[in-house]
Amino acid sequence: MIRLTRLDGEPFVLNAELIKYVESRPDTFVTLTTGDRLVVQQTPDEVVRRAVEYQQHKLLLPAAPARSTQN
After folding, report:
1. Contact 39, 6 (CB under 8 A)
2. Which of 66, 23, 13, 14 has its CA nearest to residue 43?
């Protein structure tokens, strides 16, 4: 998940796995695999940087320890 900001200043979190492509028109448009398009404040380079960083770190997080069911 990556944090982005809509043009109106509203922050949101996007599942980076859904990004199909990012383009500048001159606003930054993020097109998702679902066909939805989002316009964000970040530059295309920043969106790509965050998406790549997400991909690099997602497998580096340790799994949460299993909880014991014994009391």
Report:
1. yes
2. 23
**Of 55, 43, 57, the residue nearest 4 (C-alpha):** 43
State the DSSP code for 26: S
Residue whose pair of structure tokens reads 């580096």 in the numeric block: 60
Name the pLDDT band for 70 (thresholds 50, 70, 90).
low
**Per-residue b/e over 5-35, b at no fewer than 16 CB within 10 Å?**
eeeeeeeeebebeebeebeeeeebbbeeeee
C-alpha distances (whole Å) from 2 to each of 36, 67, 70 are 17, 28, 37
pTM above threshold 0.90: no
Measured CA distances, 6 to 3, 10, 13, 64, 66 (Å): 10, 5, 10, 32, 38
